[in-house]
Design brief:
Length: 696
Amino acid sequence: MNISKTSIQLALLAAPLALSASFSFAATHNNPLKLEDVFSLEYASELDITNNGDEVYFVRNYMDIQSDKKLGNIWKVDKNKVMTPVTNGLYSDFSPTLSPDETKLAYISTASGTAQIHIKWLKSGQTGQMTHLSASPSSLSWSPDGKMLAFSQFVKGTPKSPVSLPGKPEGAKWADSAIFIDDLFYRADGAGYIPPGNSQIFVISADGGTPRQLTQGEFDHGGKISWSHDSKAVVFSANLRPDSDLELTDDNVYRVEVNSGQMLQLTDRIGPDNNPVVSPDGKLIAYLGYDEKYTNYENTQLYVMDANGGVSRSLTTDFDRSVGSIKWANNSKGVYISYDDKGETYVAYQPLQGNRKVVAEKVGGLAFGRPYSGGEFDVAKDGTVAFTYSDPQRPADVAIQKGDQPSVLTQLNDDALGHKDIATIKALNLKSSFDDLPIQAWVVYPPGFEQGKKQGKRYPLILEIHGGPVANYGPHFSTEIQLMAAQGYVVVYANPRGSDSYGKEFAQTIDKNYPSQDYDDLMSTVDAVIAQGSIDEKNLFVTGGSGGGTLTAWIVGHTERFAAAVVAKPVINWYSFVLTSDFYPFFYKNWFGKKPWEAQDLYMKHSPISYVGNVTTPTMLLTGESDHRTPISETEQYYQALKLQGVESAMVRIPGASHGIYTRPSNLMAKVGYIMWWFDKYRSNKSDTTDGQAQE
């Protein structure tokens, strides 16, 4: 779960080597995908296209097996598909940003040991480290005159210590000092307990020197930073309410003068106004937002207003989808937008007056672990669109498009996957048994499926459920699902009610009502796959993470049709979750409307813990020990309840992992390894197979 309402995501022994001693994946075909192949995969991200559309700078992400980290270097690819490294080394180089005259490339690199701003002079090839910051910079943005860079950085505050202990002798080793907390928002998933301080905006000369802080105060200033046309001010979003921790989504757009530091508020409403971008002619600002109505979901709209504020208007009031990111056309007469529609991501051109037009399809490929939608794009002055290209059998490549057909410029994974037998993905459309609501799903068929089907083989089935719950899956590459299919399982995933990319009404069907009839949607999905034939109904399995973990726990509390289940990083008890999760003010207000003690029956009605007495399905739980979004205490209470019920159960704890378990590649391997081991443990008819596939 994250707090973006367009994609709110609820998204022991974690040593993969230990798996090999007791469990090894059986080959399903000549050369299936294996756990260790995780370290061979790459993907493109963070694109910056040149003005003429001839070259694209991008981050080439890879998995370093020695450090067990995702690293990345900056590369360049031209329209003739010639690739050139721009940076190199076992570092993280990211946020490539071309100067307005395209003679320099600013980026952030950990080459010095910490994240710092670097500049590369493209003609000479010389590189210089421009900063020596105490915290990581973000949101790099060149001034239009090319003389300055703006960025945001966390600035530490003074720790609160109302009590000082007397009498400590010099050199004595006492316990660490107590930590005093009185802030409403005091921890965040992936960051842990938040030290005192706030994110502030800085500027620095493109020739180097000392950064200068522009914003002040005990509020976070950041997100996307855009410059005024004359390079005299920057525009950004911030939540400056005195009760900002209670109203987490109430950002507004601000303008701050670079020389004086004078700040002007440009928007004022209840709801998020963010990602502001000044038009090339300097006359308008485009930004994203919606009116906060305290529901589980609202469509994010595209707005424009005068550069100095004033009346704004939405360009997408008639568009029943959420706008993801924006980029002005060079002539300032329209805005390029990204959005998700029915599980896929598109780029469209939205003129200030007139109808929008799709200019790029098959955008995505960035989720890597699971098949979530979403991608990145940039636009050249001549209208050429550069975007991360989504292929169901490949992670993101770089593509450009001007006209009807894209040109895919990179083939980053042909060396890793070109010789592998990869599962195929086909769309499946069905209707829910609850109310005939149309549901979209995708079926992943293991290598050799068609041949096996002709031979009368029957395959085990895995239902894999997305998080959010307001999010969406689509026909995108997924390492986890490909690894599952490689073991001879048919895998199906769906977008049940509550998913986004199908319109506001579809997403709001679970408002104050989750889980509920999404269960029926998922069971109908399983039935639709079974109806196609070749599925062994005695070997049905279910798993999901975050919101998908919640639904998995809900499912085993309402049916016994699955042979085994793996519940990953779930919410089990909404009462305890709201009082232990990091963004608790948002969750109670937008998902329930009342505090737990004000609506105990409602909270417990939708809590899987309320139905644990019905569970007979062997159930494994898997969660990161440092997860602050769906804390591991949720996992522990369900595990203990299952044990008290005498249900066959196990718990896998991932040390050091936050909600995004696969941040470290070995954790992704461990997650899939444990899931498949558990399913294999409870899979019948295994002795009748010779290739990992169940026989009738």
